[in-house]
Amino acid sequence: MSGTTEDTPYAATRAPQPAGEGTRAVHAGLPESEPYAPPMPGPVLTSHFHLPGDPADAPYTYGRDGNPTWTALERAIGELEAPGEDVEVLAFSSGMAAISAVLLSRVHPGDTVVLPDDGYNLLGPLGEQLTAQGAHVRRVPTHGPELLAAVEGAALVWLETPSNPGLDVCDLREVVEAAHRAGALVAVDNTLATPLGQRPLELGADYSVASGTKALNGHGDVLLGYVACRGGELAAPVRRWRKLVGAVPGPMEAWLAHRSLATLHLRVARQQENALALARELHDWPEVSVVRYPGLPEDPSHEVAARQMRRYGCVVSFTLPDLGFAERLLGAARIVESATSFGGVRTTAERRGRWGGDDVPDGFVRLSAGVEDAADLIADLRQARDSAREG
């Protein structure tokens, strides 16, 4: 897996099989235990390595090509994305670097690519870049018959499920099967679900891509991304793109993200509990016209999500009457912080329309549930709502 040999000091041992997801998360990517050695080696801070002989025989050559700290993280992610299976994982300097690596290395002039029109807002500019390079871009909703129809003649189908920020869900198995029959590859942005909530490779996707900046790291102190896939043939063009562009993670960032994996199962479980509690609370507010969370039984995506997701994520979206009400509520919150991004231990929220790239109402709010006490979060939102009502 991912740029090392099995006899290096950083070769990992998998947790005993079968193992629960918590056990895997705690032990993923760690080396064999040795007397008096740290359980997790520190970051390898170097730009080059001692390199005698033929570089082809070397596990590490230069800092742009590989680093033992990346290797440990990539192994760990592979053990979460596809437990017990042989996968290739490539770490990147950010989620957008990972997304761009797949799209720009796999879509060529004349190819057709399918992108969601309700996904992450930088997919729009990225689609424009692909068009400028001679590709044909089809933008379709995450949920609906247009997606299945759009796969015909495509070289790559890019899925984002649940979508960000609207939280629509598509049937991954159904879309993957249709895309593969049509000869298309399938990549899934799994950022919101995390590999503990959904495993796209198990559901047939060719690539699972995510921003490690979000829940994977979870502490709001790292920019990171990754691509997971099966087999060197799928990984090779993505790896080449990473090298040519130099979109590589720093060793410290990779180490911090690996460190954070040990609590991933605890964090995503608590975040889901809080997200569901907040979604239920918001569902009863007269000021909220729409609340979306795949874990809500009333949510239009719940049935499909329940078939393919183990957990429903930390993000809740809801629509308030207008821009002013939303801004007053967010400004009055004391625990819920006004910030972009999601997946962190602290609860954050923002009026998503302020960025201008999402087709959402002015009062649309994306909230990311953290790991605080749900009762405190509900109380904070209630007092913020009361303040917003007063104007």
UniProtKB/TrEMBL annotation:
The keyword Lyase applies. Keywords: Lyase, Pyridoxal phosphate. Its cofactor is pyridoxal 5'-phosphate. GO terms for cellular component: cytoplasm. The modification N6-(pyridoxal phosphate)lysine is found at residue 214. GO terms for biological process: cysteine biosynthetic process via cystathionine; transsulfuration. It comes from the Bacteria. Residues 1-52 are annotated as: Disordered. One of its GO terms (molecular function) is pyridoxal phosphate binding. PANTHER family: CYSTATHIONINE GAMMA-LYASE-RELATED (PTHR11808:SF85), TRANS-SULFURATION ENZYME FAMILY MEMBER (PTHR11808). This is Cystathionine gamma-lyase. It comes from Streptomyces tardus.
